[in-house]
Amino acid sequence: MPTQRALSATLSPALLLALALPLPALVGCGSCEDDGSTESAEGTAEPAEPAEPALEPLLALPESVEFDEAKMVLGRALYFDTRLSGDNTISCATCHELGHGGAEPRAVSTGIGGAQGPINSPTVLNARYNLAQFWDGRAVDLQAQASGPVANPGEMGSTWEQVLEELKAVPGYAEQFGALYDDGITEANVTDAIAEYEGTLITPSPFDAYLRGDESAISETQRRGHETFKEVGCTACHTGINIGGSMYQKMGLVRDWFGSLDREITEAAAGRFNHTGEESDRHFFKVPTLRNVANSAPYFHDGSEEDLAGAVRTMGTYQLGVELSDAQVGDIVAFLESLTGELPAHAALPEGGIPEGPEGEAAEGAEAAATAE
């Protein structure tokens, strides 16, 4: 069976849009004077069956998820702890700021020593619902994703040997890991705990309440934007529970986005090709979730778009092949704002939430980083 990426690569743009449009837009009405009745074989009018409601391609988040509280507490401490970086200055929260939609307010990530990364960090919020992690999908899940940045010289710039040695010197961590894992502090257990915490970061929004039947949860403009979002074809890619994150798609599906740029095309722009080596994957990226997108600028894999309305226009032009009107853009932006949700109460790091080391310096640095975040 072809994969979602393969399907999106082989189907024509017109067919992709057709699949995204509601059924009434694709089926002729038969007669403009249709009175809603049907005629039997004998010629007598009979009431027509009520039309089936259009299938809603977007799904509501659950209001909560189950998790292991002890693992979550440990993973939360590790998420904010700068001991995971080579110079004790960078934590997971540095590039995935919970107060900035789980993403970062910079075009590209800044690692230790001011190193500039090649790509914009995607949001960690609701990431449990993605088909894979990173823009190119090279990590199969949150645990695999948590492992990579630690040893990346341009990101956290450490080694797992160094990190484990530092964590083992912290009595509080030794106690927590000992209670949860038979083999104590290992790379697998560190990343397992971080993934447990990150998996709890779901953000039910007003739009989710609307999907569950609360008509008053979003405004009339947002409701209109929701319909426009579907009508113009955005749900060909941004669909499901995460309103994205469920497929890979080419940046510039209908029109050549990369060819329109007046700047150098970086290696990161090759997208999924860098992971698979398949030429058919060049410029393909994981479709990002649109949840909390109003709070997570800048946009796109290269962080090149600061304005949400600008991002919507670009998607219309290069992914859908349409020039959206100002009214359409405004309504879609209003809809996207309804996707801003609330973090669970346990997401924030409490005072003293990171165990102190023998001298306390690393813990103080981590606390300061969490406060700044």
Structural write-up:
The chain starts with a helix and ends with a helix. It folds into two domains: 69-202 and 343-372, Cytochrome c-like domain (Cytochrome Bc1 Complex, Chain D, domain 2, Orthogonal Bundle); 206-337, Cytochrome c-like domain (Cytochrome Bc1 Complex, Chain D, domain 2), CATH 1.10.760. The relative contact order is 0.17. The chain has 373 residues and is mainly alpha-helical. The protein has 15 helices and four strands.
Short key terms for the protein model shown above:
2 domains; mainly alpha; Cytochrome Bc1 Complex, Chain D, domain 2; disordered N terminus; two-stranded antiparallel ribbon; 373 residues; 36% helix
State the strand order across the main sheet.
Answer: 1-2
Q: End-to-end span in angstroms?
A: 44 Å
- Helicity level: 25-40%
Question: How many beta-strand segments?
Answer: 4
Largest sheet: 2 strands, antiparallel
CATH second-level architecture of the largest domain: Orthogonal Bundle
- How much of the sequence lies in strands comes to under 5%
CATH class of the largest domain: Mainly Alpha
Q: For the record, what is the CATH homologous superfamily label of the largest domain?
A: Cytochrome c-like domain
Strand-and-helix sequence, N→C?
HHHEEHHHHHHHHEHEHHH
